[in-house]
Specification:
Elements lengths: L1 H39 L4 H15 L18 H9 L7 H11 L4 E4 L6 H15 L10 E4 L3 H14 L8 E4 L13 E4 L1 H6 L1 H4 L8 E4 L2 H6 L3 H9 L6 E6 L7 H7 L4 E4 L2 H7 L3 E5 L5 H13 L6 E6 L2 H13 L5 E3 L5 H13 L4 E5 L39 E6 L6 H8 L9 E5 L5 H13 L3 E3 L11 H10 L2 H21 L1 H6 L1 H6 L52 H6 L8 H9 L16
Parallel strand pairs: 1-6, 1-7, 2-4, 2-5, 3-4, 5-6, 8-13, 8-14, 9-11, 9-12, 10-11, 12-13
Organism: Rhodosorus marinus
EC number: 3.6.4.13
Catalytic activity: ATP + H2O = ADP + phosphate + H(+)
Length: about 625
């Protein structure tokens, strides 16, 4: 039996040896086959490029993930799930259903999805979940860095992050923008910064990023367009290569190839189209109304707003600041409340203006979205460094990119975008969070119309023509033209100066005061008329001027504020600017406030003298 056992073991050993030799032969045959294939291939540059692209696609495969029905199925921490419910996240969007599971597995992710599809929560949730579940927070060490292109988006992403860590308050979220702080990097678990701000502080604070575990580049195409390529390289180089990386954008173009090589390692590619988003969210309709002259744009805009054809919140995009203020002055003359938003305003004023618009304080916002992405003459990214231009505008400012406007019903392209990406980002301001929306463009016949049709063809959008019968609104033309003639270049410049002065005062001198007096902060209105020459009767639209089809349905009278009988200024206790100089004077009567306004000193009554009786 011993011999049989010994012989059996020899046979088994022989079989193992033969199997090992077969495996070696297979491996050698595979290697030789690869070598033969390489030898058969010619060494032309075109074939080498094809081979490189083929090798890259092997590492970057689009994600084909099974749909996740709820956030609970993702295995998120209970505190994160509770925060999701508190902010209204009921069901993951397509990009969240694909991106969150991939990020939770530790994969690098390259995600492309339309604006308004939930990309911010898609990269925040896995990062915050990892930090919270491992209790890796609260020690002031930077463990996650999120790079965004603009200041507004920086504060917005930080605001969403704080809401998602509501039930883990020890996890600190800080922002880092240019010209803020003392030049050092703040101690925080999650840092949201612009590339330029982070690059400025690397010389003195590079050691603070030694333990970073996550890095995200949000709106990656815009990061490059703003000239942040060098700053982004410096920022990424300071972060350990072992960190998990995510690159998020609305589109994947060739300009992102260098950034992908710098940030990502064998990423999982997630591509979400408009059709995928449309299945779970709202529907956007794209309309076009072709006009003849620029004055027709003002006429159609006035008719749509005044006759209440456009209802709900309306976001009007223009391409120049002068046009924004001209349109604002034009709407003021007809008592249509509106506000302007542009890069000349201080950061606090811009944020507060967006918050008031989202809160419904006013329904019309004229947004100046100067084309910082693509020059008018060629479709190439702008490689200039993001510095302030001669007009004082700030290139770290972007309106159509990433800013979350709530419940916008209509996006009106008063000035047309110059690039397809710009159009898509403008359109992404509406139909968010499962709602429907409309994008209406007002091109002039000729080049503007051809450019818009080309943009929509590139994006595969169906452009529906909205026929505007100009004869129906022709009765309003004389009012429009008369108002436009009264708005001169000098009026526009004066309005710009007044607006900047007012907002600068509110942003700098009153910052500390408003922190202790939040009610007075709410009293500052961004929709104030910029000119005193507002004629109240223009807010009244007589019935004979209404189109015949709208005389019964449209409301013919706009709400006009009537002046007080006393024609006096508002009381100083409601004026936040007057409250700054007022000290604590205790309880005051209306007579005391009147004396204070008129500068009348209060007489003190002394003891009556004998013999003086009146």
């Amino acid at each position: 039996m011993g011999r049989n056992g010994e012989g059996g073991s020899r046979e088994v050993g022989e079989q193992v040896r033969r199997m090992g030799e077969k495996d070696k032969l297979k491996k050698n045959s595979k290697k030789s086959l690869k070598v033969m294939k390489k030898k058969r291939k010619s060494k032309t540059p075109s074939e080498n490029e094809e081979a490189a692209e083929e090798e890259q696609t092997q590492h970057e495969q689009p994600a084909v993930a099974e749909p996740v029905g709820s956030f609970e199925e993702m295995g998120l921490d209970a505190r994160i799930l509770r925060a999701c419910k508190s902010v209204g996240f009921e069901k993951p969007t397509p990009v969240q259903a694909s991106m969150i599971p991939a990020a939770l597995m530790g994969r690098d992710v390259l995600a492309a999805a339309p604006t308004g599809s939930g990309k911010t929560a898609a990269f925040l949730l896995p990062i915050l979940n990892s930090l919270v579940s491992r209790d890796a927070f609260g020690d002031g060490i930077v463990r996650a860095v999120i790079l965004v292109p603009t200041r507004e988006l920086c504060y917005q992403v930080a605001g969403v992050s704080r809401k998602l860590v509501k039930y883990a308050p020890q996890l600190s979220v800080r922002t880092l923008v240019r010209k803020s702080g003392d030049g050092s990097v703040p101690n925080a678990d999650l840092l949201v910064a612009t590339p330029s701000a982070l690059a400025e502080r690397l010389d003195n604070s590079a050691a603070q990023f030694d333990q970073v575990q996550f890095v995200v580049v949000d709106e990656a195409d815009l990061v490059l367009s703003y000239g942040y390529d060098e700053d982004t390289r410096r920022s990424i180089a300071s972060i350990p290569p072992s960190s998990q990386s995510m690159l998020v954008s609305a589109s994947l173009g060739e300009d992102l190839d260098e950034l992908k090589k710098l940030v990502l390692r064998k990423p999982m590619v997630i591509k979400i189209t408009m059709d995928d988003v449309g299945k779970s969210s709202g529907l956007v309709t794209h309309n076009i109304t072709t006009l003849t002259t620029t004055q027709d744009k003002y006429l159609v805009t006035y008719a749509l707003l005044r006759l209440q054809v456009l209802t709900g919140k309306t976001l009007i995009f223009v391409n120049e600041i002068d046009t924004a203020f001209r349109l604002k002055l034009f709407l003021d003359k007809f008592s249509i409340r509106s506000a302007t938003l542009n890069g000349e305003l201080p950061l606090n004023s811009r944020i507060h203006c967006v918050e008031q618009f989202n809160a419904g304080v006013f329904d019309v916002l004229v947004a100046c979205d100067e084309d910082l992405i693509v020059s008018r003459s060629e479709d190439k990214p702008n490689k200039r460094k993001p510095k302030r231009d001669s007009g004082g505008r700030e290139n770290e400012f972007g309106l159509s990119r990433g800013i979350d406007f709530h419940e916008v019903s209509t996006v009106l392209n008063f000035g047309l975008p110059f690039h397809s990406n710009s159009y898509m980002h403008r359109a992404g301001r509406t139909a968010r969070a499962g709602r429907t929306g409309t994008v209406l463009s007002l091109p002039i016949e000729g080049k503007e119309q051809e450019s818009l049709e080309k943009i929509c063809a590139q994006q595969g959008l169906r452009l529906e023509k909205l026929v505007m019968r100009m004869d129906q609104v022709e009765s309003l033309r004389y009012r429009v033209e008369d108002s436009l003639r009264s708005i001169t270049r000098a009026h526009v410049l004066d309005a710009r100066l007044k607006d900047v002065k007012r907002e600068m005062l509110a942003s700098e001198k009153l910052q500390d005061f408003f922190e202790s007096n939040p009610k007075d902060f709410e009293a500052l209105k961004h929709d104030k008329a910029l000119t005193p020459q507002v004629q109240p009767h223009l807010g009244d639209l007589p019935a004979y001027l209404l189109p015949a089809a709208l005389r019964e349905k449209a409301q013919s009278r706009a709400p006009v504020r009537r002046k007080s009988r006393s024609n006096s200024k508002r009381s100083d206790d409601r004026d936040p600017l007057d409250n700054v100089g007022r000290k604590n004077r205790g309880h005051e009567t209306s007579r005391d406030r009147y004396r204070h306004r008129k500068g009348i000193a209060r007489k003190r009554r002394g003891p009556r003298k004998a013999g003086k009786h009146t």
